[in-house]
Amino acid sequence: MAGKKEEANIKAYSQNFTTMTPGPFAKWIRTCVVWQAIRFIVINIKMLVVVSKSH
């Protein structure tokens, strides 16, 4: 298993372990209550469409 050997060489939180950190826009989008409410409504409408097609 070649994948296991490669994973053994990577240690979390070391200097070589880099993760993406969100930028200012991503942080704003994740914490904006108005945007979350809009997304909630859109997702619920999509769910209603899917459920209405099945019944």
Kindly list the characteristics that best describe this protein.
single chain; 55 residues; mainly alpha; 3 helices
Provide the succession of SSEs: HHH
Approximately what portion of the residues adopt beta-strand conformation? Answer: under 5%
Helix/strand-derived class? mainly alpha
Overall average pLDDT: 81
Which range best describes the helical content: under 10%, 10-25%, 25-40%, 40-55%, 55-70% or over 70%? 55-70%
Write the layout of secondary structure elements.
Layout lengths: L1 H7 L15 H8 L1 H22 L1
Could you explain how this protein is built, in words?
With 55 residues, the protein is an all-alpha fold. The protein has a domain of 34 residues. It is 67% helix and 0% strand. It has three helices and no strands. The longest helix is centred in the C-terminal third of the chain and has 22 residues. The chain is elongated. The termini are far apart. The model has no long low-confidence stretch (mean pLDDT 81).
In short:
With 55 residues, the protein is mostly helical.
